[in-house]
Amino acid sequence: MLIVGAAGFDLLGPRTATTSANGGGYDLAVEFPQIARAGEPAPLNLTITSEDVYDQTVQVRFCGSYFKHLDFQSWYPNPSAETSDSAFEVSSGAAPDGDWVVYEFDAPPTGNTLRIALDARVAPGQLAGRDSCEVSVLEDDQPVVTATWTTWRMP
Predict the structure, then answer these.
(1) Whose CB has fewer CB within 10 Å in the chain, the N or C terminal residue?
(2) What's this model's pTM, rounded to 2 decimal places?
(3) Are 105 and 79 in contact (CB under 8 A)?
(4) With left for phi above 0 and alpha for psi between -120 and 50, is residue 10 left, alpha or beta?
(5) Which residues of 25-57 are buried (b: 16+ CB within 10 A; e: fewer)?
(6) For residue 121, which phi and psi values (nearest 5 degrees)?
């Protein structure tokens, strides 16, 4: 009965949410899928604003386990480099096994704001579950600002 009522009020349908953090001279905003369903879009959008104009590449670290339930379409812009490394420090426990993916993005051509979008879908056939993740901007391979979020997958 509770599930029927929640569905009737559209509380179980796909929706996005935002979270943000600031530190180390950066503002980090994340728009993420708060509730997602198998086969449905699950876009992830980052806005990274620096106190200074970017003059070099920007390293962005994600917990790799978050992406196990997604089918990637593409990053916009595409990263110039990608690596997976378990040697990075775990800051919040979101990736207790050290499962990190680090993307390197070219600096924006002008200004101090880098916008990154991931076009993805929840992989077909996924069961209900919860995926927590964190994203960090790195300097000298260390996180300077970190935001965390949780996505609920519905069947």
Answers:
(1) N
(2) 0.82
(3) yes
(4) left
(5) ebbbbbbbbebbbbeeebebbbbbbbeeebeee
(6) -130, 155
Please give the Cα distance from 66 to 62 (Å, whole number). Answer: 8
Render pLDDT for 72-115 as a digit per residue (tens, 0 to 9): 888 999 999 999 865 444 444 444 455 899 999 999 988 899 99
Q: Which whole-number Å values give the CA distances from 108 to 39, 78, 96, 102, in the listed order?
A: 32, 12, 32, 18
119's tokens: 């076009």
Q: Which residue has the tokens 């970017």?
A: 54
Measured CA angle at 17 (ends 152, 82), to 5 deg: 80
Q: Specify whether the backbone of 68 is left (phi greater than 0), alpha (psi in -120 to 50) or beta.
A: alpha
φ, ψ of residue 16 to 5 degrees: the values are: -110, 160
